[in-house]
Design goal:
The chain is an alpha/beta fold. Helices cover 22% and strands 16% of the residues. The chain has helices at residues 8-21, 55-60, 81-84, 118-121, 125-128, 139-146, 196-200; strands at 66-70, 74-76, 90-94, 104-112, 151-154, 161-163, 181-183. The protein has a four-stranded mixed beta sheet, covered by helices on one side. Strands 2-7-6 form a three-stranded mixed beta sheet. It is globular. The two termini are 21 Å apart. The relative contact order is 0.17.
């Protein structure tokens, strides 16, 4: 969490959504960028969250199993356990982007601790700017560059992971029956509280 785009209320609501829908034990953490990474929050592209691939950072934060990153503009709408009961080293949401040439979307990422340290080790902004991008270089493009064959949650019925009114979403505003998790791109769910399912979840 950084900047002022999302409030502590966003954090609390997302946490409660996870608690209601995840049966397996978990620890809820809110991470803010370390001082040496603050410059990464001053540019577009969410590069600061690449620190999650740093084994030293994982060790300092006592992460010894799976680390799941969920964007704060996400609404949990169904059971999550089957999404995370996977043995893959890295899983990332895929197939949501329309204009962006990157097939990955960083709104939902699961990483096994210690896996793919090269994502952080080899990262710098100059190198990331050479990877194909849409409007600006971003973390998901860099992840795809380093681990192009990463496993995925493919948006839509294949996973129950959706991006609101983007690829895989049926027409209209109604929540798909099989939706487990809905994330929003450039749209705050707090501004869509007129929709019954957003108020409910």
């Amino acid at each position: 969490k950084w900047g002022n785009k999302f409030s502590d209320e966003h954090v609390a609501k997302l946490c409660e959504g996870v608690r209601r829908n995840l049966k397996q034990p978990f620890e809820w953490r809110v991470f803010r960028p370390e001082a040496r990474d603050v410059h990464l929050t001053k540019m577009p592209g969410c590069f600061a969250r690449l620190r999650m691939f740093d084994p030293e950072w994982q060790a300092r934060n006592f992460i010894n199993d799976r680390l799941v990153n969920i964007d704060l503009d996400t609404v949990i709408t169904g059971p999550l356990d089957s999404l995370f009961d996977r043995d893959d080293q890295l899983v990332i949401m895929q197939g949501a982007n329309v204009a962006n040439p990157c097939p990955f979307n960083g709104a939902l990422i699961m990483l096994r601790a210690g896996a793919h340290p090269e994502v952080w080790r080899d990262f710098n902004v100059d190198a990331a700017s050479k990877v194909p991008f849409y409007s600006f270089p971003d973390d998901q493009g860099w992840i795809h560059h380093k681990v192009p064959d990463a496993a995925g949650w493919h948006v839509g019925q294949a996973s129950g992971v959706y991006v609101y009114q983007k690829r895989g979403w049926p027409s209209g505003t109604a929540l798909p029956d099989d939706a487990r998790l809905v994330t929003f791109v450039n749209n705050d769910p707090e501004k869509l509280m007129h929709l019954d399912w957003i108020r409910e979840h």
